[in-house]
Amino acid sequence: MRVERIARDKVRIFISYDDLEERGIDRDEIWHNGKKVQDLFWDMMETAYMEVGFDIAGPISVEAFTMPTEGVVVIVTRIPSMPGASHDDGEYAEDEEAYFERDHGFSPRSTPTHMVVAFRDFDDLLAACRTLHPYPVHTALYHYDGAYQFVIRGDLRPEQWEEVFSLVAEYGEMSRVTSWVLEEYGKVIFADHAMEQLLQNFPA
């Protein structure tokens, strides 16, 4: 299990299929609101609090999607009590407690808008770009933490995101950093059109 805080009121949690197997949860069972899934959810929230200080003392939304080989990605967002208010601005209204289900299951309704893939080897990055080229995506490239960090964005259908992940996962791995961290601290190589510029400068 890996937790990333991507905003003040939002965290992203990666759960590998090995994590699920150790808990006796199969891939299809994650979408059912059974006791093992509820226990997993509260373990995730405890980990999020311990590692990044993210607590859920109020209403939240939970969205999840699967990656073919990586596992399950869960996005947890705290919902402000009043429009425009942040989590720290006051108490949550009692009637909003209905939005916070303590027996929370995961819903496969969320579609990712981007992903970050890390490549240690430049040739692997080029190979991934060649397989990714047919997809309508926008890409950026940074260098951070000793790796090439490739940001992929796009308005793709869920099945297309799974295809994209399957392709790039053959050459790289899901990054441990977010695009926001890269924009702030990474060394920019190509801020936009990274895939096109790489393929143009380094043809096969």
Automatic annotation (TrEMBL):
Annotated family: Belongs to the MecA family.
InterPro entries linked: MecA_C_sf, Neg-reg_MecA
Protein name as it appears in the record: Adapter protein MecA 1/2
One Pfam family per UniProt: MecA
UniProt superkingdom: Bacteria
